[in-house]
Write a structure and sequence with these properties.
474 residues, nine-stranded mixed beta sheet, two-stranded antiparallel ribbon
Amino acid sequence: MPRRNFILAVVALVGLILFFCFLVRLLLLRYERGDIYPPYSTLRADPLGTRAYYEALGSINFYTITRGFNSLHRELEEKPDTLFYLGLDTSDLMSFTREETAQLDTYVKNGGRIIITFKPEDPRASNSDAQKKSADKKAKAAKQPRKDGAPPEQIPTANSDQNTSEPQTQQEKHEREEFRKEEEASKDDSNKQKDTPERKYHPSLAALWGFGWKQHSEDKVKKQDDASDSVSDQETEKSEVLAICMVDTNLELNVPWKSALYFVRIEPEWEKLYDAKAEPVLIRRTWGKGEIIAATDSYLISNEALRNNRRPALLALLTGPPGRLFFDETHLGTQEQEGVMFLAEKFRLEGYLYGMLGVTLLFLWRNSTPLVPPRTSIGHALLGGTVSGKDSRSGFVNLLRRNIAPRNILKTSLAEWKRNVTPARRHLHGKMSAMESILSATETNRADTILQSYHQLREINTPSRSKGNYATKS
């Protein structure tokens, strides 16, 4: 290979390696920062994430922390002491299936703790936009297939006897009324298909535990025209909202609150821990042997809040006693996919994959570069090929000398001559006997004796030719 081409190949290889190194480094930086994950994810390290809270608990010896990327059934199999749902959307709370609702209810009654912090609602968002977003999420969840292979579930769905039972909480009564209105509206819709199955109501987690939510109407701002990009002075000068502690404990007196949501239709068993604008925003309830804590905002456990507005006593209340803490990530859309690599890691097949990769590289190397080095021009001339100054007759003589011993040269020649004696040439049988008798008397490696025997054979075969015409020179 010319020197110029070799240098270009090396430069191209080095450039390709550097490109992949910088690409991997860029991806690692994105994953370390975590801004590719949803807000309030424990994998996110920017101000909108909760990674600081997660890692801080992991540094404490009497806490065991785990992230959940699987179904709720698998998460509860690990028997966590506290289950966190951080940044949960209000519509996601209504989309839990009947089986998941029963599992969470049983989990709390048996002594588990559930911490729910809702995703903050923008005060400028209209109520109609929130309802539309919730309806879109419900319709999307209804079309998705179940994880266990069952057909898509109608949301909400339950047994028929649950429609006739009396509401147990104010939130359940409210949900039944909303469900009835939706059913009446769907019946009046002329575009509804006739074969659509009838939906059944089942209580959500909020209805089962007895709380609802609403958005502050006084925080809503009228929509501006599409061409307007300015922000009003009323919004820019708006003071920060503080949640005031309503119980006589060691909790902080106030907490910054970023969400316009507040709790309504709460049962008397709920304890109001914090109020914002005279409305409850953080509540607690004992349920069976366990405990439920719900907050309408997730800012208090975000990375930004832990740096600028840290409230240690409130964080300690959410964390609870020592034990196993489980942070669910599936409600944020981060879920583990059981693909080929997941199965390979599960059954510890990494060594087999590395071996297959090595065999593939060796196969490519073998087919691109021969393992035997090429022969040089001198070696090629010595091992064979065209040699100047030699004709085909000389080559044939050399071949005979290499492959036939001197004492067997006459026997080999006579054997080849016998192959030409056909039944039509019977007159040669007498000559054949004479030749064999001469050969039987000749058993030596001496060249003169072999040459003399050769002349005798020639005289028997062709007696008319003279000795001078024989080509017997060596």
